[in-house]
């Protein structure tokens, strides 16, 4: 099928590349010329395992093309994905100006033939109908340019140019760091809208994925498709993220109580996770959730509820538990080192989670800010950030090139991101290089006994006690 994906951020580029990989003819549109040039050469502007490989093979088979020309993309696609960003505004609402511009742009460039316009971005509830209205506005704008100056298009003229289209909400549930894997192995596909015709085309588009042709385990039954109305599909995305974020805040709260009563949250998580009603996922206590989705989506849902006169108390609590949790490493550093002024703290990891180069809303940022405020010197080593030298959003931290340089002279280390390679560092050597071998394991990722044997004073989150 002919597909156009507008916006080549995480969602857009992964969607475009994966759809090309399963045999569709894809054009990806982005208004950033530099980025388009980079992608044409087969390079991915983001770090995402497996993405460059499938991009390059799709370029070779000519299944994917990149352009900054929206008109060309719209004219190519029978299915048009809107996958532009909806970043948070200071108020917590989503900034939907990019969605607005693209929806109008689609309308201005629609040519004959039925098209399905798909909202892939996480858009505020009610956006499906709004996008429909904007596309219609765009169509009218274009028609105005087609009548003599000062003239008004006649009804006949309007209908002559009016294109047939439907809007579908198709939220994504990809995790950064495993986005390609998640696209080929989804738990479900949600299609919101009231047009049977649009839903049937979307089912056709996803059929190879639904039939598990590209799945890790091809023997699984087909992926369930859930067809809903527009606003329920939009709500599913918010509710899923809000639930997961709340689940993490819940276990973090339990961890804080564990710390006080002398229990071990990792054991508690195992014990409750074996209850199939609870499930064992997203029960890892630590220094809180971050990234481009959870903080933005939970705030936006709270805001939407507010707009409709409802105070989302549980979600507000999930956010405030998380804000406090981001400073838990600081609290623990103070417990062990007492005064932080003049001390050097080394951070293992900076990104909000492993296998990504994303620093958006990363817990490391607030930790650096607060350590600086208290007069500590902050150094960091992150497998991706140290390698790429990418420093966007980072200040007040010295980025080292490896973990041993990081350890050198530090009064304490804080494990911020659970990068796999941190499980096999030479902690014996690192302990010897440090002024005080203290480690705050902000993700309960390391084996306490190994660290203690290496000479460290080990402090986890909700893991009972300071061990040494
Ligand atoms: C999330 C959703 O999982 C995904 O479905 C949605 O499409 C986008 O948002 P992502 O932000 O990539 O994906 O990361 P995720 O793996 O969900 O982690 C989010 C945050 O929660 C990270 O900061 C992570 O460190 C934290 N986390 C996750 C925990 O603290 N404990 C856990 O048990 C799981």
Automatic annotation (TrEMBL):
Its EC number is 1.1.1.22. It is an enzyme of class 1 (oxidoreductase). It comes from the Bacteria. InterPro entries: 6-PGluconate_DH-like_C_sf, NAD(P)-bd_dom_sf, UDP-Glc/GDP-Man, UDP-Glc/GDP-Man_DH_C, UDP-Glc/GDP-Man_DH_C_sf, UDP-Glc/GDP-Man_DH_dimer, UDP-Glc/GDP-Man_DH_N, UDPglc_DH_bac. SUPFAM superfamilies: 6-phosphogluconate dehydrogenase C-terminal domain-like, NAD(P)-binding Rossmann-fold domains, UDP-glucose/GDP-mannose dehydrogenase C-terminal domain. GO terms for biological process: polysaccharide biosynthetic process; UDP-glucuronate biosynthetic process. NAD(+) binds at residues 30, 35, 86, 122, 176, 296, 360. The keyword Aminoacyl-tRNA synthetase does not apply. GO terms for molecular function: NAD binding; UDP-glucose 6-dehydrogenase activity. Pfam families: UDPG_MGDP_dh (PF00984), UDPG_MGDP_dh_C (PF03720), UDPG_MGDP_dh_N (PF03721). Substrate binds at residues 173-176, 237, 282-286, 290, 353. The active site is at 293 (nucleophile). Residues 346-448 form the UDP-glucose/GDP-mannose dehydrogenase C-terminal domain. Keywords: NAD, Oxidoreductase. Pathway: Nucleotide-sugar biosynthesis; UDP-alpha-D-glucuronate biosynthesis; UDP-alpha-D-glucuronate from UDP-alpha-D-glucose: step 1/1. It catalyses: UDP-alpha-D-glucose + 2 NAD(+) + H2O = UDP-alpha-D-glucuronate + 2 NADH + 3 H(+). Belongs to the UDP-glucose/GDP-mannose dehydrogenase family. NCBIfam families: NDP-sugDHase (TIGR03026). This is UDP-glucose 6-dehydrogenase.
């Amino acid at each position: 099928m002919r597909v156009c994906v507008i916006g080549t951020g995480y969602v857009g580029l992964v969607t475009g590349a994966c759809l090309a990989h399963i045999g569709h003819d894809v054009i990806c549109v982005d208004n950033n010329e530099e980025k388009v040039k980079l992608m044409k050469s087969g390079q991915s502007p983001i770090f995402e395992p497996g993405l460059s490989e499938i991009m390059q093979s799709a370029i070779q088979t000519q299944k994917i093309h990149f352009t900054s020309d929206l008109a060309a993309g719209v004219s190519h696609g029978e299915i048009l994905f809107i996958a532009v960003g909806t970043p948070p505004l200071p108020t917590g609402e989503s900034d939907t100006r990019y969605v607005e511009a693209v929806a109008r742009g689609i309308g201005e460039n629609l040519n004959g033939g039925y098209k399905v316009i798909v909202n892939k971005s996480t858009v505020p509830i009610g956006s499906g109908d709004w996008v429909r209205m904007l596309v219609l506005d765009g169509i009218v704008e274009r028609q105005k340019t087609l009548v003599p100056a000062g003239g008004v298009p006649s009804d006949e003229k309007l209908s002559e140019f009016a294109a047939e289209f439907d809007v579908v909400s198709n939220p994504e549930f990809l995790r950064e760091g495993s986005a390609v894997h998640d696209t080929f192995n989804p738990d479900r596909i949600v299609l919101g809208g009231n047009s049977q015709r649009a839903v049937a085309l979307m089912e056709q588009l996803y059929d190879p994925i639904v039939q598990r042709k590209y799945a890790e385990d091809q023997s699984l039954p087909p992926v369930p498709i859930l067809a809903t109305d527009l606003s329920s599909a939009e709500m599913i995305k918010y509710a899923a993220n809000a639930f997961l974020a709340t689940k993490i805040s819940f276990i973090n709260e339990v961890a804080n109580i564990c710390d006080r009563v002398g229990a071990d949250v990792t054991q508690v998580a195992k014990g409750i996770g074996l209850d199939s009603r609870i499930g064992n996922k997203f029960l890892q206590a630590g220094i809180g959730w971050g990234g481009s989705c959870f903080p933005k989506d939970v705030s936006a849902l709270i805001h939407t509820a507010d707009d409709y006169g409802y105070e989302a108390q549980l979600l507000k609590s999930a956010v405030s538990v998380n804000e406090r949790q981001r400073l838990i490493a600081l609290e623990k550093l103070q417990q062990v080192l007492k005064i932080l002024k003049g001390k050097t703290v080394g951070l293992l990891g900076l990104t909000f989670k492993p296998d990504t180069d994303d620093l958006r809303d990363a817990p490391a940022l607030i930790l650096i800010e607060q350590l600086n405020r208290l007069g500590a010197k902050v150094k960091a080593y992150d497998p991706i950030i140290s390698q790429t030298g990418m420093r966007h959003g980072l200040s007040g931290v010295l980025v080292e090139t490896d973990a041993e340089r990081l350890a050198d002279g530090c009064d304490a280390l804080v494990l911020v991101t659970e990068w796999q390679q941190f499980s096999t560092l030479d902690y014996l050597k690192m302990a010897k290089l440090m002024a005080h071998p203290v480690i705050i394991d902000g993700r309960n990722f390391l084996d306490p006994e190994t660290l203690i044997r290496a000479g460290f004073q080990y402090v986890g989150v909700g893991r009972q006690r300071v061990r040494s």
